Structures are given as structure tokens and as C-alpha cells.
Amino acid sequence: MFRRHGLRATAAACCATALLATPALAGSDGPGAPGAGDDYFPGYGNGGYDVSHYDIQLRYQPTDDHLRGTTTIVAKPTQNLTAFNLDFALPTKSVRVNGAPAQFSQDGTELTVTPSEALPEGSLATFVVEYEGVPSTVEVDGIKPWIRTSDGALAVGEPEIAAWWFPSNDHPRDKATFDISVAVPDGTEVLSNGVNTKNASLAGWTTWQWRTTKPTATYLAFIGVGQYEISTKTGAFGQPLVTAYSENLGELAGPAKASVERTPEVVEFLTGLLGEYPFEAQGGLVSSEGMNFALENQTRPTYSHRFFRNGANTSVVVHENAHQWFGDSVSVDTWRNIWLNEGFASYAEWFWSEAQGTGTAQELFDHYYASHPADDPFWQTLPGEPGAEEVFSKAVYDRGAMTVHALRNVVGDEALLDIIRTWVSEKRYSTGTIEEFIALAEQRSGKQLDELFNTWLFTKGRPPVGEATGVPVSATRVAVAPPKAVAEIDRTHALLHDH
To answer: Domain Peptidase M1 membrane alanine aminopeptidase spans what residues (predicted)?
Structure first.
């Protein structure tokens, strides 16, 4: 992804929340934890249950941003559960647990629910939440991720967005399948994840139904509501390809389509590198206002119009679709592991550049290495431990991609692809950590890689030239002319900071 919403809160508040987030022991009687135990975002996610499915039914009026919804959550308690939390920011009207009314209270994005009876560990549980509000007016800890546009809205963001349109266990560790149904005034379009299963009109309202059948992290579920030109055809491997372009793109419609309509080609290319495409549909959405970033929404990335102001941009399409493997299928176990998402999605752009003849990965590595002198602050952010305030910094992307190339230089092309393919295959639909990736890289390559990863991911300063660090002497020479791909990649990555 490129550019996310603001990150937050004080260290004291984080520490206090972390203490509260200590999970109860499995099999014990008690409330579930109000957090998933993520050091960077202690309040995100919850403990005490696992979600398997969300059924989200919404009615949305674009003229006043009014949203009314009912979300049914199918879950399994992982302990004998006397109370539990959902992550949700909109005003809640009622909660039912296993059909019976439940008591609830709400503070910020924490919706605490006390069922009339304790939920036995391992049992089938359903939570039904009714709610109503104006999402664009709801602010928590200075954050308002819901994007209202002149003709609708975009529920798109990372790491927070779900709480502004459906209650959830909002952490990548707890993935689920989704049915998303949105009723809007006739003549308004709705895009979401997966496959459009049905549309029906009644009394001036059209209901759009979308379904995704593969495990999905909550922040990767999305809706786009507004005036869109929608195209549905066959994509790579015979899968549905759904693309949507705001009708207000004007002169940017051409370059946007010239980029996003190459998605099947990009998916086929990435499949050749990374292994089988992990989902059931493909596509993309291009907005004309309200956002200045792109996000790897599962099966259907969303792009700001700004990526196409200088013409077609396939780099961002490659980046967001590479996330379908790195980030969507294999997600971060905690947000501290963000290099596993952004470093590899950025390096996919380098692979694409090689294939297109616009610059080899080594030429790109040399360019970025030489472009950042040893005293450049760029080298002070650690991709392996960036801190909550720097999760989406330039170094996580560019130094992150350089780390992958350094690994390639040390282990070789064949071993690198073997490591990547094994990782996405063994971790399919789950989560991973940097330490697990390093262990796999050493096991598959047969090489000791401590110096490489410690230097690139966990040590401040520009990595020195050396065989063990994967930095060749050529990297210290400034190229006479940077590879052609640099201009497009830099324009793409610049939006990360242009806010």
C-alpha cells in the first residue's frame, strides 16, 4: 500500500492498554482480552474468540453519509467467555448473542459485550450488532479514516478502517470470509471484495451483494460507493475480473484504464514468480477524489487518481497485486512485521522492471544505494523494527526492497525464488513474522544469514559493501543515468509522503 491514515497515541496510553490486553488462559472462565497483544497497536483486535464469517448488511445514503447496518458475526470462543470486545466506532443500537439480547457499552473503538449466558469454549456463537450513524463525523484518537466523496464514500484504510463500517475482531491474525450487502439509491454503484453474486432493485434502492470465500483480514475488506464505470470480464486463469473507474476521472480515465486493465497480465507475471494466485477474483477501483494512496484490498486494490497524473503507471498495479500474496494471503502476525508486506511488494516492482527492460534489479539497487549518502536520515529507520509512527515510512518500502535484493545477491536467483514460493505456500491464508522468514531463508538456502538481516533490517546506518551484506562495489558509484523504471517507481512512492 501507499500512504495510510495517521498513527497514534501516547506511549503511556499504549502501555496501559497493553496491560489490559493480556489474554485470558484458554479454558478459563472470564472476559476476552480487549486487544490482540500487538505491541504497536495494543487496542487493535480482541481475545477470547475466533471469527469465521462476517455477514454485513448495510443501507447507505450518499447525500448525507447516513449508514445503517446489521452485521452478523459467526465465531468460536477460545475460552469460556463471560464477556468480549468488538472493535467498532459507530453508535450501536443493539447486540444479540446467540439470539438473546446482550448488555453492551462503548468507548472509542471498544464495544464491550456481556452475553446473558457465558459462551462455552469451542461452541458455535453468533453476534448480531445493529447500528446507525454518519461515519465521516466519527473521530477516535484523532483518526477519521472513512472517506466521504461528492457522490458516495470509500471505506479504505490501513491499519484502521473496519471499525467505521462494521464491528469486528480487527487484527490480521483473525481472518474470515465475508458476505457484504449494500443498499444504495438507484443509479449508484457499489464495489467490494470477491464476486458480485446478485443485484436487486426495490422502491428506488438497489442492493449490491458481494462475496469473498477466502480468509480475509478485516482491514482488507472494503466498499466503494459512488458513480463508477464498471467492467466485468474474464481475467487471468479464467477468474472474474472486475474493474471500476470513477465517472469523474476526466482526462485521467485513459491512463488509469491503461494501467489497471493490465491487471491480468500483472497477475500472470507475479504467479510465475510467487506461485499460484491465492484468491477467486481480480480487478481494481480508481477513485477521483478523497484519497491520495493505494491499498491492496483483497481481490480488488483501490487506487487514487493521483497515480495516473503523469500517464500510465503499472508499477503501482504490480505493487498492490504483489500484496495479494505478501500482505493479503500471508499477513503480518503483528504490525511490527510490516517489512514482509512492503519490502516484497516494492521488490516486485523491481522484478517487473527487469522483465520490461526498463532497468535491472541491480541497477535499481545501485541507484537507491548511491542516492542516499551514509548520513542520510533514510538509513536511520529500521525496516525490521520501524516503530508505530514509522510503519509506513519510505525506508520500509525502499530499504525494504533493497534488503530483498541483498538477499538475492547472497543466495542467488534460484534460492531466492525457492524461499519466496515456499513462504507463500506454507503460510497461505495465515500470518508470519520476520524471524520465521529468516529461519526459512536460512533453511532453504543452506546459508547463515545473520549478518545480512541484522545489518539491513535491524542496524541503523547504510549497510557496508561486502559479500555477507549483499552490497557490491557497483552500488557505491552513482549511475550516469538512472534506470527508466526509477521515475515511475519514485512517482509512485512519493505519494506515500504527499499528504
So the answer is: 312-456
Q: Which of 391, 395, 413 is nearest to 403 (CA)?
A: 395
Q: Order of strands across the sheet with 29-31?
A: 29-31, 80-87, 110-114, 103-107
Residue with cell 506515500: 496
What cell was used for 152? Answer: 458516495
**C-alpha closest to that of 315 among 267, 349, 342:** 349
Location of C-alpha cell 529461519: 439
- Per the CB < 8 A criterion, the answer to whether 7 and 499 are in contact is no
Give the other-Cβ count within 10 Å of 473's Cβ. Answer: 9
Q: At what angle do helices 339-356 and 394-411 cross, to 10 degrees?
A: 70
* pLDDT tens-digit readout, 84-108: 999 999 999 999 999 999 999 999 9
Integer-rounded Cα radius of gyration of the chain = 23
Report the DSSP pairing between strands 92-97 and 125-133.
antiparallel
Q: Can you read off the three cell numbers belonging to residue 160?
A: 484502521
Q: Which three cell numbers stand for residue 341?
A: 508486506
User: What distance in Å separates the CA atoms of residue 102 and residue 387, rounded to the nearest whole number?
Assistant: 38
Residues in the chain: 499
What totals of helices (H) and strands (E) does the chain contain, helices first? 11, 23
Delineate the domains of the chain, giving CATH numbers in brackets. 1-145+155-223 (2.60.40.1730), 332-494 (1.10.390.10)
Respond yes or no on whether the N-terminal peptide bond of residue 23 is cis (omega within 30° of 0).
no
**pTM score, whole prediction:** 0.93
Side chain identity at residue 197, one-letter code: T
3-state secondary structure of 418: helix
Distance CA 125, CA 51 (A): 9
What is d(CA 258, CA 250) in angstroms, rounded to the nearest whole number?
14
| CA nearest neighbour of 432 among 362, 335, 303, 365 | 335
- Of 21-35, 186-200, 297-311, which gets the smallest average pLDDT? 21-35
Q: pLDDT tens-digit profile of 16-44?
A: 333 333 344 444 689 999 999 999 999 99
- Cell numbers at 324, concatenated: 495479494
Give phi and psi for 241, each to the nearest 5: -115, 115
Return the closest-CA partner of residue 40 out of 345, 296, 386, 394.
Answer: 386
Half-sphere exposure of 98 (CA within 13 A, CB side): 14
- The SS3 assignment for 337 reads helix
Instruction: List, in sequence order, the alpha helices (H) in 325-393.
Output: 339-356, 361-371
Place of cell 454485513: 56
